[in-house]
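Let us work through a complete example step by step.
Step 1: write down the sequence.
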Amino acid sequence: MEEVINSALVVARYLQKRRPGARCFPVAEPRVIKELLDHGLRISEEPEEIDVVVIAFDRTFDYRKLNIAYRASLHGADLIATNPDRTCPMPGYDLPDAACMIAAIEACTLRKVEPIVGKPSKIMLQEALDLIDLEAGECAMLGDRPETDIQMAHCTPEAMGWRASGRHCRA
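Step 2: predict the structure and record it as tokens.
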């Protein structure tokens, strides 16, 4: 395996299969935008043209992006997200993560963002299995966040493990 299977890749593959060529408005960082483009999806900031609002971790999230997402929603755009993480662990502190952008967009649109394709979603699990061409029973799920990694492992009882590291590791 030469690449990491992350939620940016999964959201791009998910949309490529279900909404090929869709016009997306990414509330996201450049790596998510690159994945969308690499999978044949288009980027738009015109609310009337947007088919899907893609919500992810975004350190540039602002009122302009919130307003575009809101207006696109009024025009019928789907709302999809990469991951449900509340925070992104950093050395010494955490950053607000995708759940914060999701909450803001859900609050103004009065719509639930779904699906959320990253861990612990079964969508993420299936995409990973498809990419590595294995069955769940042939794999082990390792992670350090019980609320996402370990919950996803419970989607397939054959494959589960937990390694205390990163966020849950004591120095």
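Step 3: interpret the result. The CA atoms of residues 22 and 156 lie 31 Å apart.
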